Amino acid sequence: MSTRPRIYLTQKIPEECEGWRLLRESCDVKVYDEIETGHMIVPRDQLLRDVRGVDALYLALPVQVDAELLDAAGPQLKVIATKSVGLNHIDLAECARRNIPVGYTPDVLTDAVAEATIALTLATARRHKEGIQAVHGGQWGKTWESSLYLCGKDICNSVVGIVGLGRIGLGVAKRLRAFGISRLLYCGRASKPHAAEVNGEYVSFDELLKMSDFVIACCSITPENHHLFNADAFGKMKKSAIFINASRGILVDQDALYVALASGQIFAAGLDVTTPEPLPPDHRLLTLPNCTVHPHLGSATVTARHAMADLSARNALAGLRGEPLPAPVPLI
Amino acid sequence: MKTITRSFSVLSIISSFVGNANSTHLINGRRMYLSYRKMSTKLKPKVFVTRRVPEDGINLLRQKCEVTQWDRDEAIPRHEILNGVKGVDGLFCLLTDKIDEEVLSTAGENLRVVGTMSVGYDHVDLSACRKRGIPVGYTPDVLTSATAELTMALLLTVSRRIQEGVTAVKDGSWGTWAPLWLCGQGLEGATVGVVGLGRIGFAVAQRLKPFGVSKILYTGQSEKASSAQLPAEYVTFDKLLNDSDFVIGCCALNSKTTGLFNADTFKKMKKNAIFINTSRGGLVNQDDLYTALKNGDILAAGLDVTSPEPLPTSHPLLTLENCVVLPHIGSATLKARNAMSELCARNIVAALYGEPIPCQVK
């Protein structure tokens, strides 16, 4: 009988990754095969069966980790490694109660996500979706259809408000400063010392909504901020404002967002995250010219994905050996 | 101007004696106003505007000039522009209007200034204007940040595969996940090559810096003092092509740069390189670009400018997933377009009233 620890991966790791080699070297690896079942995310009942008796759980996609899953796995479960920096899919309190350390992947994906957030902000501000459609669909008339054709919003001299100036928020702020913004506002539970690097001004959520030309959500999810962006919030924003969400879909009341966009209460919105993911192609948000949805591309660079896979593998292996994790989720 | 006003007053008093039976007063404010207007219309220079443009410029023109205008959103047809320019003193045009010998000679002797609402002037025959002593006004600076922002937007849309992403969301293919699905090229650690470190090129380079690029290269006719602020290294075109992960075309279109990007050029670039052009379509041999993209000589391309504009929907470049085409929206923000309209008007008014032209093509 094998004495190697057993690890279950909810998705395969690219073969060229160092992390894959490390796991194969020291563990019995079981990988969920989405091609075989045709489902991107492992179905719940199959997951509960597959995790029985495993020593480590490696999550490559945000499956729900709760008491039910931990019970199904069994008391021998030593570590959970999530390939993400977002943690709203994990009951951290329950893991702490059972002394199961949780590893995640901060820092290694910060640049990729900050860059993708800027890409989304710019594509939304400059109406790329409409522009590309006009080119392919033949609506692009005798160039400069009118002298205000597809005019978008300037970032230069604008007021940017970042909701949650964490690692990613700071990365977004640093990049935007080079665009000549006039003010960088931020809000959150407390002011941040690193805000000084970007001349960040700590304000209340309401003040940020009222004063910002660009409202960019980069915050982590807590029980308190579900549907933070609701009808009330959109009502407080400028009519000319652009809303960008790079956090998690649950931050936004999507019905309220639809109404705000369709009625012109805000200028436009760009979402890299939605509820659910994937968003159904017939979702009404997709019918709006001023709503841009990207398929959660935040960390989608080869560099970031490889680094996330490797760090997750090392988190798992450290947990299996009873050593401190390279990147443990801070205990609440 | 004061002399003219006084003359108006004298002439209007005379005309009130002579012309108007209703008048009982020599100095009837309303009648004087009408007379003033009639007199001043004859003396105000005439300007023809080739499109409906933001009001800031038109209002400024109307204060000092008599304005006739092709007040439509579509580009002015050739026969209409030839009709409209006859006898004018000034011409306010857009980059879609070819200002050549025929237009200038049809306009006639009075034409004293051409103002284009753009920073590019490849559509204006400069030597024909010079020959006639006609200065050409243009609109640098006021559109620099908008265009630099759009260049950054296009670069990121290409590098992060946004076009494919948006398509996947729309057609439901978002869901067939793989760990490296739609992974793009990060700017972190990349070498960026700017072809033409003018106002726009420099502004783009400034915005690239905090993305963690390791090196900024540039090429052009000569070194630029501004490069020290970035810093950016002056290299030959070939070295830039050889070393760069991102190649950005920001130079003006002229006889030296037409077709600069051709099969040879693309072969010299890295296979993972991304090519962005927000300058003019004429910079690129589009057939060669298509081949290069199809064969994988370069990774991807983004164009805000094409030949022609608009690009026909059947063009092969539009069949490629790794090619993004935008409908020339470089300066498309309200602020920039308003400022361009206003500056173009100021250039024209200055020339017509013998004052220094704020922005004249040298």
From TrEMBL, chain A:
Citing just one GO molecular function, the answer is: hydroxypyruvate reductase (NADH) activity
Q: Which SUPFAM superfamilies match?
A: Formate/glycerate dehydrogenase catalytic domain-like (SSF52283), NAD(P)-binding Rossmann-fold domains (SSF51735)
A GO cellular-component term linked to this record? cytosol
Q: A single Pfam family, by name?
A: 2-Hacid_dh
- Would you say which domain of life the source belongs to? Eukaryota
Q: D-isomer specific 2-hydroxyacid dehydrogenase catalytic domain location, by residue?
A: 18-329
Q: Which UniProt keywords apply?
A: Oxidoreductase
- Which residues belong to any copy of the D-isomer specific 2-hydroxyacid dehydrogenase NAD-binding domain? 118-298
Stated family: Belongs to the D-isomer specific 2-hydroxyacid dehydrogenase family.
Q: Which PANTHER family match?
A: 2-HYDROXYACID DEHYDROGENASE-RELATED, GLYOXYLATE REDUCTASE_HYDROXYPYRUVATE REDUCTASE
Which protein, by its recorded name, is this? Glyoxylate reductase/hydroxypyruvate reductase
Gene source species:
Dreissena polymorpha (Zebra mussel)
- Organism classification: Eukaryota, Metazoa, Spiralia, Lophotrochozoa, Mollusca
UniProtKB/TrEMBL annotation, chain B:
Q: What is this protein called?
A: Glyoxylate reductase/hydroxypyruvate reductase
Q: Name one GO cellular component term.
A: cytosol
A GO molecular function assigned to this protein is: NAD binding
Q: What does the organism's lineage look like at the top?
A: Eukaryota, Metazoa, Spiralia, Lophotrochozoa, Mollusca
In which family does this protein belong, per the annotation? Belongs to the D-isomer specific 2-hydroxyacid dehydrogenase family.
Sorted keywords for this record are: Oxidoreductase
Ranges for domain D-isomer specific 2-hydroxyacid dehydrogenase catalytic come to 47-361
Can you give the residue ranges of the D-isomer specific 2-hydroxyacid dehydrogenase NAD-binding domain? Answer: 152-330
Q: Output the superkingdom of the source species.
A: Eukaryota
- SUPFAM superfamilies attached here? Formate/glycerate dehydrogenase catalytic domain-like (SSF52283), NAD(P)-binding Rossmann-fold domains (SSF51735)
